[in-house]
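Researcher: I've been going back and forth with a colleague about how N-dimethylarginine dimethylaminohydrolase might be arranged in three dimensions. Neither of us has a model we trust, so I'd like an independent prediction. The organism is Saccharothrix ecbatanensis, in case that matters for your notes. Sequence below.
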Amino acid sequence: MTSVSFAGPGDEPIVLDVATPVAQVRVPTTRRYLMCPPAYFTVEYVINPWMDPTEPIDTALAMAQWTALKETYERLGHHVSVIDPQPGLPDMVFSANSGTVIEGRVLGSRFRAPQRAAEAEHFRRWFLANGYGRVVMPERTNEAEGDFTWTGKYLLAGTGFRTDPLAHSEAQEALGVPVISLQLTDPRYYHLDVALFVLADDLIAYYPEAFSTGSREVLRRLFPDAVIATAEDAACLGLNAVSDGRHVVLPVEATSLADEVARRGFEPVFVDVSELRKSGGGPKCCSMELRD
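Model: Here is an independent structure prediction for N-dimethylarginine dimethylaminohydrolase. You can compare it with whatever you and your colleague have in mind.
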């Protein structure tokens, strides 16, 4: 039995007795993200259980939280590109929903909700203007990294609420990578990226209750050592997190999840996304990864 001590969210010492070896040293890799400022952020319609148009929205606070997230990535050594926000598209801040990029190939998005449909064309134009020559726009409903999660080996693909299951085979053809289909069953976790995220090669974190029985079995087979999130961490969108292989950027409320990833050798980095969460988004929703 080994005692392991590390700093908690408030710098208080946490001590764990573990029967396994001390967590391995994790190595970060530099990432590139595409983000969109929430200049027009508001909640004026309902397309997920988190949205309530009667609740006041502070757009200035949303901008401050988004800026802090962007600066966090830059402080960690990552590169951030920015697309201009557009009036009338309050959810454009959630850039992850508008494209999936793997080895320079781009699969655009086709939104289920008509309120967001116009976002896809703005991102398509950005890709073409920024040197991406291979951009495929889908025929099937596909909400990009909202439901497509690249592990480095497989594209985990969610369905059940937004992305059409036939979009999974479309993604495989467009991106040339193997696709694993996963069924989401809880409307609170309407996208894959609010129920699961990749920590490092062959390691994920997820909330099993968000998935069908068969999908849970698939995840257990593929990732037997996965971090299992609590209901409390899922409920604050703690799994809408971003990892660079060492640093894990996640909502400040996700304390149990932070403790567990720290035990695995990662460094939690907390951000406040409380205002953006009023539209059902968090760090990952605001961050499309550009894998060139």
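Researcher: What would you highlight for our discussion?
Model: I'd start with this: Helices lie at 59-75, 119-129, 166-175, 213-222, 231-235, 255-263. After that, consider the following. The domain at 31-289 is CATH 3.75.10.10 (L-arginine/glycine Amidinotransferase; Chain A).
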